[in-house]
């Protein structure tokens, strides 16, 4: 694999996990302090998101594996992730459970879908998987 391609895949992996970690880190404090949910309600919302992440993970990964144009699928999924971040700014107590379902399906599954993508690229380009995943040159 050319160093330019390796840099591209390493950078996109870093951005993907960076955005996901930022979103998941501030999700609970945001729900508690800004939306105004109690901690038990926050626990319920996070549990609903985790349940739908578990249920949708197999579906998304199988759909992703069957696609020929995997870059398009990844771009759509990342756009949905950005949309979820924007949608989070307008969440209130009445639609929080709907958001929790979408959060589980879109945000919590992006890492798994992306892992399948990077692993497939590593196999196709005959590169060690760990070379793409490490972020230093």
TrEMBL record:
It is a multi-pass membrane protein. One of its GO terms (molecular function) is transmembrane transporter activity. The chain crosses the membrane at residues 7-30, 42-61, 73-90, 96-117. Gene3D superfamilies: MFS general substrate transporter like domains (1.20.1250.20). One of its GO terms (cellular component) is plasma membrane. It is found in: Cell membrane. Keywords: Membrane, Transmembrane, Transmembrane helix. InterPro entries: MFS (IPR011701), MFS_trans_sf (IPR036259). The keyword Transmembrane helix applies. It holds the Pfam family MFS_1. This is MFS family permease. It comes from Clostridium beijerinckii (Clostridium MP). The lineage of its organism: Bacteria, Bacillati, Bacillota, Clostridia, Eubacteriales.
